[in-house]
Specification:
- Its cofactor is Mg(2+).
- It catalyses: a myo-inositol phosphate + H2O = myo-inositol + phosphate.
- GO terms for molecular function: inositol monophosphate 1-phosphatase activity; metal ion binding.
- The chain has helices at 6-30, 50-66, 75-79, 100-104, 174-187, 200-208, 222-234, 260-269, and strands at 38-40, 47-49, 71-74, 91-98, 111-118, 121-129, 134-139, 144-146, 149-151, 163-165, 193-195, 214-218, 238-240, 253-257.
- By secondary structure, the chain is α+β, with helices and mostly antiparallel strands.
- A hairpin with a 2-residue loop joins β8 and β9 (149-151).
- α1 packs antiparallel against α2 and α6 runs parallel beside α7 (222-234).
- The structure holds L-MYO-inositol-1-phosphate (LIP).
């Protein structure tokens, strides 16, 4: 049987949904613990906890047991030296806890973010915030949903009408920090408002659900945006590079918006940062 016929994808979807809910229970059990044990990764504000590792293991073990030929790109596996390669093979792209810093502080905006790519095309996207019981889902060509109800992006086209999302990110490297500050300075006077949930995936889900109109960030990785890419597109939105060109999934840059017009207007206004690509 082909890896991407609809029966196969149905079974991938059911399995991953079950595992995602189990992962959510694990996160809920640990969220209230204060002073969680954590380790530093690329910078003082890029952290990993035992729960990130446990959730990633639960998902990879559970999926590889059922689907023995599938491949994985998992944040914590890559951070400890694992391969970062997207081929045509069915590949699960996993951020076990997107918003780890929030999780460390018991700030209830973190999520499991998981996507399945087949032939380098996103087929399944799931973003689950177990603390607030928000389950965002999408399958290619079938729309996007929040807890089973269809969601759609807003119809905002003007920056002056837009609620924008951005992030400080997980690096305090001066060039990037300056660009973040410049962008805040330039955007704040011209938009409705600026917001930040502390999770790239949840920011994208919020654009998909029409709660905000656009989000951009420099310094993300493919696991932060893989599920969000499909969910935003299936909700009618656009996902591009912050310079206005096509999204490059390993470039560590993303911009998503409710409409192409808004995406282009935002892209033209941004001070750009080009981090070292992941691949
Ligand atoms: C982080 C996001 C955060 C974003 C960072 C990074 P992690 O993911 O939650 O919003 O600013 O670039 O993507 O490290 O918590 O999985």
């Amino acid at each position: 049987m082909c890896d991407c016929d609809s029966d196969s994808v149905d079974s991938y979807y059911e399995t991953v949904l079950k595992l995602t809910k189990e992962a959510g229970k694990l996160i809920n059990e640990k969220i209230k613990i204060r002073n969680k044990k954590r380790e530093i990764k690329s910078s003082n504000i890029d952290l990993v906890t035992e729960t990130d590792q446990a959730v990633e293991k639960l998902l990879i073990d559970g999926l590889s047991k059922e689907f023995t030929t599938h491949k994985f790109i998992g944040e914590e596996t890559v951070s400890s030296g694992g391969a970062l390669e997207l081929t045509d093979a069915p590949t699960w792209i996993i951020d076990p806890i997107d918003g780890t810093l929030n999780f460390v502080h018991s700030y209830p905006h973190s999520c499991v973010s998981i996507a399945l790519f087949i032939n380098k095309v996103p087929e399944i996207g799931i973003i689950f915030n177990p603390m607030l019981n928000q389950l965002f889902t999408a399958r290619k060509g079938q729309g996007a949903f929040l807890n089973g109800e269809p969601i759609h992006v807003s119809d905002t086209k003007e920056l002056s009408e837009a609620l924008l999302m951005l992030e400080g990110g997980t690096s305090q490297e001066p060039e990037r920090m300056n660009a973040v500050c410049e962008n805040v300075k330039n955007l704040l006077p011209v938009v409705h408002g600026l917001r930040s949930l502390g999770s790239a995936a949840l920011n994208m889900a919020m654009v998909a659900a029409g709660g905000s109109d656009a989000y951009f960030e420099f310094g993300i990785h493919i696991w932060d945006i893989a599920a969000g890419e499909l969910i935003v597109r299936e909700a009618g939105g656009v996902v591009i590079d912050p310079d206005g060109g096509d999204l490059k999934r390993f470039s560590r840059r993303v911009l998503c918006a409710s409409t192409q017009e808004l995406a282009e207007k935002l892209a033209r206004k941004l001070v750009q940062v080009y981090p070292e690509p992941d691949a």
